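Sequence design from tokenized structure. All designs in this work follow the same two-part layout: the structure record, then the generated sequence. An example of the structure record is given first.
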């Protein structure tokens, strides 16, 4: 999730766990620090754009390494605040803060390596978009009221914010499961297994969902709003088909950089060749043809293809067309996506 959300979650966790043992502002501030710490790995240069992507959310987001670091962080907090008698409470706050950060990141589609060093498997459940105001706002409102009120019961507002955000995260999983079921019932998905179907929310909401069906030579993309049955009962999910570059795939199986994306994307990738450079795209983030992560990794200097230092391309959807379409399609309007 975005940095603001993670800081807010950490502050809410800090306030809830420390209770009345520390001033609210102090627990919230140090909780926000804990909520921010794992994302400092963004400042580590892994050597090139592909590795910077693939190895973000790695060791600093792994439960094992977080558990090892937690005692030292808790000791520092206890020392700074001169509250060593509350060390165990600080330790619990740090552990819950770090673990909740990693788990929330894993609910996005990006991929979080929770089980390092025992497994490099990236977890990306994909039920929450990386920025979702309906998850973040309850946390912020609960914290703000708790900080401003002077009543003994003010911490209940923080607890309420945490509860609402947690319920919303649970709702996102239920909504995703429902849309996945709808997608698997379509004719386009016939014969596909569940790991060949990707269902993720569109930006800032959990009402409109993007559905990707993966086949060897192409992928299909469609959109489903939870309001579609109300506006047009019986309307099927309409899919557009796009080539995955099957011929290029066979020719680039030995390219290490491309294989990193193949593995990290859980197979949801596409390749393209413009006659000069060959690119690979992670299909999970964005929508056709506007994707967040596209990398050039080979070029036609000669035959066969030669590897090059990875170059990142970003194809942003214009805001003036993307947001109006998102808002109308979310409400159930039968509109084709902007291409």
């Amino acid at each position: 999730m975005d940095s603001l959300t993670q800081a807010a979650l950490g502050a809410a966790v800090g306030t809830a766990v420390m209770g009345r043992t520390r001033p609210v502002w102090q627990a919230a501030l140090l909780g926000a620090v804990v909520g921010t710490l794992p994302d400092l790995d963004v400042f580590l240069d892994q050597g090139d754009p592909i590795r910077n992507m693939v190895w973000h959310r790695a060791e600093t987001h792994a439960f094992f390494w977080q558990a090892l670091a937690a005692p030292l962080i808790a000791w520092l907090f206890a020392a700074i605040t001169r509250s060593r008698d509350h060390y165990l409470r600080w330790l619990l706050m740090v552990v819950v803060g770090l673990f909740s950060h990693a788990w929330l990141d894993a609910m996005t589609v990006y991929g979080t390596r929770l089980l390092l060093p025992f497994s490099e498997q990236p977890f990306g459940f994909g039920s929450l978009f990386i920025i979702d105001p309906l998850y973040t706002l309850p946390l912020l409102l609960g914290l703000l009221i708790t900080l401003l009120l002077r009543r003994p019961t003010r911490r209940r507002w923080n607890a309420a914010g945490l509860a609402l955000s947690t319920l919303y995260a649970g709702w996102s999983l239920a909504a995703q499961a429902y849309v996945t079921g709808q997608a698997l019932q379509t004719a386009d998905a016939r014969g596909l297994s569940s790991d060949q179907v990707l269902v993720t929310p569109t930006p800032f909401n959990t009402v409109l969902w993007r559905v990707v069906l993966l086949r060897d030579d192409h992928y299909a993309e469609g959109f489903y709003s939870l309001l579609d049955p109300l506006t047009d009962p019986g309307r099927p999910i309409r899919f557009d088909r796009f080539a995955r570059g099957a011929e290029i795939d066979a020719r680039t199986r030995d390219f290490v950089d491309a294989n990193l994306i193949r593995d990290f994307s859980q197979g949801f990738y596409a390749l393209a060749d413009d006659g000069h450079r060959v690119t690979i795209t992670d299909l999970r983030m964005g929508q056709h043809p506007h994707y967040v992560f596209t990398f050039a990794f080979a070029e036609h200097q000669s035959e066969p293809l030669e590897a090059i230092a990875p170059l990142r391309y970003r194809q942003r959807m214009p805001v003036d067309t993307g947001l109006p379409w998102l808002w109308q399609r979310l409400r159930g309007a039968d509109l084709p996506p902007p291409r």
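The mean pLDDT is 95. We note this feature because it recurs in several other targets discussed in the main text.
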